[in-house]
Design goal:
By secondary structure, the chain is α+β, with helices and mostly antiparallel strands. The protein contains nine helices and 13 strands. Among the domains are: about 5-150, no CATH class; about 260-355, Tumour Suppressor Smad4 (Sandwich), CATH 2.60.200.20. The chain is about 40% helix and about 15% strand. The radius of gyration is 37 Å and the shape is rod-shaped.
Length: about 350
Amino acid sequence: MNRKAKGLRIAGGIGILLNIICLFLPMTKCEPENYPIEKFSQLDYILNMFSDNAPYGDVYSSGRIIWVIVCILIPVIISLVAGIWGIVGNDRQIVSSVMILSVFALYIVLCLTIMGFYPSDEYSGDIAGIVNLICSGAASVLAIISLLYKGEPMEEPELDGIPDLNEFRQEQVDAKINIHNNTEKSINPFAADTYESSSGSGEPEKPSSIQAESKQPTQQMVQDQQSVMQTVDEQDNNRQNSEQNDILEYVPGPPKGIMVGLTGIYAGAQIQFQDGESIRLGRHQSNDLVFEGQEKVSRNHCYIKWNGVEGKFYFKDNSSNGSFIQGMDDCLPQNIEIEIPIGSVILIGDESNSFRLE
């Protein structure tokens, strides 16, 4: 996550939430001659919206009701929603910024139109309107900057525990080829490179016809060779199955800060976390674990964080298809960082890509 963009969005959310305080500040004041000064807040305007009581005096109309709803009540509601959304949302969402800009526009309309609803010349504006413009204006500036901000992606420390998938598969293929090549050399005594040179020229001495005939492999030797090759294949398969069983088997114990790939393109990978380190998962190339071609995985699906001091994993889902804990029907909460118990198996989108947190 881009911390600078997120910080700007949080600051804008806090700024727009300050408009809730303005609900209780005096918006207008009445200064009649020979009478004490009276002050009225936006809350007074809302509570007396359907009556002729102060702060309206004798002024009453349906237009006044619409004005209070549009210019006072709706901005307060939008400020509350935009502030919370801006604080808890991620750095990429833009809905809160649009809401903040709309609140600023409504408060400008409020300040320009409130003069038409003063009952008399004894009424004038007070501090609430100015504070509204300052708070929503500052929040709008921060919202615009966060929308335009294109900072560099946050650099995460390189993870030594994540193997390259293609290299991982190629190593398995090369290892199997080497086993077969070494086996063929060890059981074939008639290979050309086994002939020893008997002359000073350095060229191998070819066996005579009698020697060649005597060294021709019998049918029994061919069968023995095939038997050895079959045994090597069986041992190789047993070794791979044993390694796979070791990966899938989990023995509860102290937290180790390791994420083990169980299924999918990272099956078999054992990823070691550093204390405080987080790993981003998704289809987009900017993620730490890239799931190219996986339809159930979102572009920026989620991140997993390890707290070594507490010995706990934390998970935040930003996806459209959701993430799941194996054995649970409901998906994990979205846009909220939650703790994941040690030993849990996380399904990224569905069971096609799964990891165990150890």
